[in-house]
Structures are given as structure tokens and as C-alpha cells.
Amino acid sequence: MPPLTDEQLKSARHAAPEETEKYRHAIENTLGVPRPPRMGRPPKQPHEKYLPVYMKLHPRIVAWARLEAKRRGVGYQTVINETLLNHAA
Fold first, then answer.
1. What is the Cα–Cα distance from 86 to 80, expressed in whole angstroms?
2. Which of 10, 44, 62, 67 could form a cystine bridge with 48, CB 3.0-4.6 A?
3. Taking a C-beta distance cutoff of 8 angstroms, is the pair 58, 48 a contact?
4. To 10 degrees, the CA torsion angle through 44, 45, 47, 50?
5. Residue 15: its pLDDT value, please?
6. 27 assigned to some structural domain
7. Which of 8, 9, 14 is nearest to 23 (CA)?
8. Is the pLDDT of residue 89 over 90?
9. Distances (CA, A) of 24 to 13, 31, 42, 45, 88
10. Domain residues for 64?
11. CA-to-CA distance for 12 and 14, rounded, in angstroms?
């Protein structure tokens, strides 16, 4: 199958969830084999969910967090969150 051209990709769209479910059932009926469920990240419990917050931080704080995050191989928001949790406890 040749790759799609840019023109073809412009007119493409995502399949709606209803369409995906319909296609899933059609494939299962045609092949006679149930398709495995899609695996993804398990849902978080309510007490595990983070609240989206907008904060203005001093540039030195962000620079430190980014350096620390790069050193540890994690995201800088993780570093800020862990630091705040450690100081709050």
C-alpha cells in the first residue's frame, strides 16, 4: 500500500467512538475471534488526581527545577510537585 499524500491526509478524519465500536464488532464477527481490549494507563483514583493550577513562578525556580529534572530524568513539574509535597509534610 503506497503512503498517503499530503492532499489525502488533509481530508482524513478521526473515526468517531461509535464507528470504532462498529468496526470492532465487524472484525470480530468476520474473523470469529474477539479482539483484545485496548490497554492503556489505568484510571486514577480521585485522591490520586492532580488539580490543574496556574501559577507564576520566579524564573530561577523554573530554571532550577528544569536542571534538577534533567539530572534525574523526570519532568520539571514533577520536581516542583515533589519539593512542595516535601515541604508541606
1. 10
2. 44
3. no
4. 20
5. 86
6. yes
7. 14
8. no
9. 18, 11, 21, 29, 48
10. 15-88
11. 7
Where do we find the cell 523526570? 74
pLDDT at site 61: 97
In a domain, 68, yes or no: yes
pTM: 0.51
- Nearest Cα neighbor of 23 from 13, 35, 10 is 35
Q: Is 63 helix (H, G, I), strand (E, B) or coil?
A: helix
Buried b (16+ CB within 10 A) or exposed e, 55-89: eeeeeeeeeebeebbeeeeeebeebbeeeeeeeee
Residue with cell 510537585: 81
The CB density around residue 24, as the number of other CB atoms within 10 Å, is: 14
Total number of domains constituting the chain: 1
